[in-house]
Amino acid sequence: MEEHTRTFTDVKNAILSAHENSGPRDKMRFYDKWAEQYEEDVALLDYRAPSLATECIASHVQGDRDSAKVLDVACGTGLVSMKLKEKGFQHFSGLDGSEVMLDLSRKTGLYQELWKCLLGLEPLPVQAEAYEVVVIVGALSVGQVPVPVIEEMWRATKPGGHICMTTRANPDNLKYKAELELALDSMVSEGRMIRVAVSEVEEWEKAVQEHETGYIPGAVYLYRKAMALHK
Ligand SMILES: C[S@@+](CC[C@H](N)C(=O)[O-])C[C@H]1O[C@@H](n2cnc3c(N)ncnc32)[C@H](O)[C@@H]1O
Predict the structure, then answer these.
(1) Is residue 197 a part of any domain in this protein?
(2) Does pLDDT of 136 surpass 80?
(3) In what residue span(s) does the Methyltransferase domain sit (predicted)?
(4) Above 60 in pLDDT, residue 231?
(5) Does the beta carbon of 80 lie inside 6 Å of ligand 1?
(6) CA within 20 to 30 Å of 101's CA: 43, 113, 138, 148, which one?
(7) What is the mean pLDDT of residues 94-106?
(8) In CATH, what number is assigned to the domain containing residue 86?
(9) Which neighbouring-strand residues pair with 218?
């Protein structure tokens, strides 16, 4: 039987060490180093974002799941696609900036295609309007994927397709969260997206920062890409 030796203190130390990293390439080195422990650690953290995003997609997205193409942005080890597969989705493409995370997601056998891409510095390496579902979980936050990347995710989505996003709502991410929501609001007012569901979740994952206790909050967003611009 596999031995589980990590403690919550190990997880805290691992995550807090990421805050010492200054730029996106440093962040990818952090994820490369963390990748092998990632799934064990996020289980200790009670990281619920992949399940919450999956539930949100499964309860609102209509249409044939057998044929729907899903783009899993910042796929990590593949937790989100694994959950979506349990809900009947079958076709996954993924991308991430960490080579080691990509190696692990490749081993799941879930993905038809996987790309290495440093979001914010490199464009999404995917065709425009190719995916019924584009999802990004655990990566839209300060120091990770910059907000303007949602424009690229919008381009990758088929008209009528869905974009699902998550972000943290603890104090150090509130400015980022406000920026994300402002960008989403303007896409809605431009007639490019329709807001389908937004849920604020109190118990998102266990707190790791010194001044925080218990659980931190977070949010799941689901938007639909408009069929055509009505201007
Ligand atoms: C917390 S993990 C989430 C992984 C997976 N989506 C999940 O929910 O388990 C964040 C992932 O985002 C990736 N990531 C963070 N910033 C990135 C960037 N700028 N470009 C590409 N990938 C990035 C990391 O390599 C890591 O795999």
Answers:
(1) yes
(2) yes
(3) 70-161
(4) no
(5) yes
(6) 148
(7) 98
(8) 3.40.50.150
(9) 168, 201
1 falls within a domain: no
- Per the CB < 8 A criterion, the answer to whether 32 and 98 are in contact is yes
Specify burial of residue 154 (Cβ count, 10 A radius: 0-12, 13-18, 19+). Answer: buried
Q: What are the structure tokens assigned to 97, written together?
A: 């900036």
Decide if 231 is inside a domain: no
Give residue 228's pLDDT.
73
**72 CA: nearest ligand 1 atom:** 6
For ligand 1, atom 9, which residue shows the shortest CA distance?
79
Both tokens of 193, joined, read: 């997206």
Which residue reads 């422990």 in tokens?
37
pLDDT of 1 over the 80 cut: no
Cβ neighbours for 7, distance < 8 A, ≥ 6 positions apart: 44
Choose one of 11, 27, 72 to mutate for the ligand 1 pocket test, by most ligand atoms within 8 angstroms of C-beta.
Answer: 27
Residue type, 22: S
User: SS3 for 220?
Assistant: strand
**Confidence (pTM):** 0.95
**With the C-alpha atoms ordered 206, 210, 213, 217, is the resulting torsion angle positive or negative?**
negative
Residue whose structure tokens are 């009528």:
160
How many domains are there within the chain?
1
Q: What is the Rg, in whole angstroms, of the alpha carbon atoms belonging to the chain?
A: 17
pLDDT at residue 84 is higher than 70: yes
What is the rounded distance in angstroms from the CA atom of residue 213 to the CA atom of residue 221?
A: 25
Q: Is residue 3 part of a domain?
A: no
Structural domain containing residue 178:
8-225
